[in-house]
Each structure stands twice: as structure tokens, then as C-alpha cells.
Amino acid sequence: MAFPWIRMAILSGGLMGMGYALMKATAPTPEQTYAAMAPDLRKKVDANRTARLAQEQELKRLIEAQACCSSVYVLSTTAHP
């Protein structure tokens, strides 16, 4: 008798589905986690978030400035035969 591949696949998928449903039902959302934090931890999280956003904006500004200058450089180098 051959191994019951179809039955095994259905049972494995069902087990994984049950695990995923259990995780979604019991794990808190990021908003719930933030609301449950102590006020001093919230201040640290807010400070880290603010610093990260400032760093991302600075990086975006540098990338845009570099893209602007590199396109000018490419145009000036290709203009000479």
C-alpha cells in the first residue's frame, strides 16, 4: 500500500491553518502593545521613532540630491563627442 500523500497534505495544511488562526487570535496588535506599555517605555519608543523618521528623511534628501547631480553629470559627459 502506498503512502497516503493527499491525506498527509490535507492534515498538514489543516494543522498549519489552525496554528496561524491561534496566532492571529492570541497575539496583540502593535497598537495594543503600545497601549499596554509603561509611560517611560512609550517615551523611549516615541523618541526612537522620531529619530528613525528624521534619519529616513535625511537619507531621502541625500538620495534626491545625488540623483539630481548625477543626471547633470551624465548629461555633461555624454555631450562631448
Automatic annotation (TrEMBL):
The keyword Transmembrane applies. Its main location: mitochondrion. It is a single-pass membrane protein. The keyword Transferase does not apply. GO terms for cellular component: mitochondrial inner membrane. Keywords: Chaperone, Membrane, Mitochondrion, Mitochondrion inner membrane, Transmembrane, Transmembrane helix. It holds the Pfam family CBP4. It is found in: Mitochondrion inner membrane. It comes from the Eukaryota. Belongs to the CBP4 family. Essential for the assembly of ubiquinol-cytochrome c reductase. It has a direct effect on the correct occurrence of the Rieske protein, core 4, core 5 and apocytochrome b. This is Cytochrome b mRNA-processing protein 4. The lineage of its organism: Eukaryota, Fungi, Dikarya, Basidiomycota, Agaricomycotina.
